[in-house]
Amino acid sequence: MILEACTRIRRPAVLATVVRVAGSAYRRPGARMLIDADGRTEGMVSGGCLETDLADRAGDVLRAGASETVVYDMRSPDDIVWGLGLGCDGEVRVLLEALDPSAVPAWCAFAVETRERRGYAAIATVFEAPRAERLGRRCWANDRGAHGPIDVGTDLDRAMMRSVETALADRRSRNENWELADGTYSGLVEVVGPRIRLCVFGAGADALPLVEQAAALDWHVDVFDHREPFADAGRFPRAGVVRCVDYAGLDAASLKVDGRTAGLLMTHHFLHDRSLLERLIELPWAYLGVLGPRRRLERLMEALTEDGLRPSTAARERLHGPVGLDIGSETPQEIALSAVAEIQAVINERDGGRLRKVTRPLHDWPR
Q1: Residue 189 to residue 184: CA distance in whole angstroms
Q2: pLDDT tens, 79-134?
Q3: Is the torsion defined by CA of 297, 232, 259, 196 positive or negative?
Q4: How far is residue 188 from each of residues 93, 233, 253, 273, measured CA to CA in Å?
Q5: Res. 366: pLDDT tops 70
Q6: Which of 38, 50, 101, 48 is nearest to 74 (CA)?
Q7: Torsions phi, psi of 139, nearest 5?
Q8: How far is CA 357 from the centre of its chain?
Q9: Mean pLDDT over residues 288-304, rounded?
Q10: CA angle at residue 326 from 323 to 328, to 5 degrees?
Q11: Side by side, which strands form the sheet with 41-42?
């Protein structure tokens, strides 16, 4: 995540943030790129179309020490004049801000700390203002009531904080316009939440590509197995936690499952999956999947019923099996791709169908 990278810079750099999009664009508001003094970049704010131009502009921002909002209008055929000619039929506004390595931005550290404890923060950023000194001004708060500096004597700060509180309540980012006595201020109110977390139960060979796929998406991955040789951190270098556990005695509360946590049972052992389901099924997963055919999951549910366990309707709706999207998966790598894609779709409240058949905007506000 680029916000974390901003807290580790050792040289002057520029942070580029997509703050508003109209029409079609590759990335949505909140996408970020870090540009150092030599023009090296980390992250992307487009499909590679805008990065070179932004890197060129970054030098001017560093020299001036002042923020700047750049507008890329790809809706007009005239955009070929300034050298891009993208034809994407959209307008993208990008805020460029100079970063000082001697002082980590307070809002950035606040967002990272909140995210690391799996909480939610909202940050309001001004990217258009009638007064130049207010460009880049921010207010922020998190779900524990902590907030950044706010001058209650200014109409702008009060308006920004109201927007922050609204965004936190519904956990949706948005653009806002604040009409004040001295003019109109435009801002991005961004909600930053925890990374997706994936708990994998079963550390067989087919778990290896699954963990790699999830880690490549910057998910936090925890792996559990009852066999010590399999629960070896050396086999899963990109996992956050690798633990040897007794499935029958698993302390479900210790997993700290939340609405951004997915679980996948892939022990390939009926009794192990039965023990796990008994302990896990009522936890508030975003997604809980059981690898294997439909009839096997039906038998597992029948076994739970025979034991006197009647899962709630909500628990049944969170349960998935067979796991994955229908992409013709056969190999462990293909199955991993299918499973990770379904989890991503469920957490983002999407169907996982073909984009060519989608008529609504392809990119929603990030959650």
Answers
A1: 16
A2: 543 445 555 678 899 999 999 988 889 999 999 999 999 999 999 999 999 998 99
A3: negative
A4: 11, 41, 37, 45
A5: no
A6: 50
A7: -130, 150
A8: 25
A9: 97
A10: 110
A11: 41-42, 32-36, 13-23, 90-99, 68-73
DSSP at 69:
E
Give the pair of three-digit tokens for residue 283.
């936890």
Distance of CA 25 to the CA centre of its chain: 18
User: Contact 321/294 with Cβ under 8 angstroms?
Assistant: yes
Share of the chain above pLDDT 90, in %: 80
Q: Read off the DSSP letter of residue 274.
A: H
Angle at 108 between CA 104 and CA 110, to 5 degrees: 105
Domain ranges of the chain: 2-99, 106-192, 197-347
The pLDDT tens digits for 247-262 are 988 999 999 999 999 9
Cite the DSSP H helix spans in 78-236. Answer: 106-116, 155-170, 207-216
Closest by CA to 278, choosing from 308, 257, 258, 298, is 308
* Sign of the dihedral defined by the CA atoms of residues 269, 270, 271, 277, in that order: positive
pLDDT for position 359: 76
Residue 97 to residue 69: CA distance in whole angstroms? 9
CATH superfamily of the 197-347 domain = NAD(P)-binding Rossmann-like Domain (3.40.50.720)
> When comparing pLDDT for 40 and 186, which is higher?
186
CA 67 to CA 135: how far, in whole Å? 7
Buried b (16+ CB within 10 A) or exposed e, 318-341: bbbbbbbbeeebeeeeebbbbbbb
Cα–Cα distance between 68 and 107 in angstroms, integer?
18
**What percentage of the chain carries pLDDT values higher than 70?**
94
Sequence-ordered alpha helix ranges (H) in 117-261:
155-170, 207-216
What integer is the mean pLDDT of 45-63? 91
Q: Are 62 and 37 in contact (CB under 8 A)?
A: yes
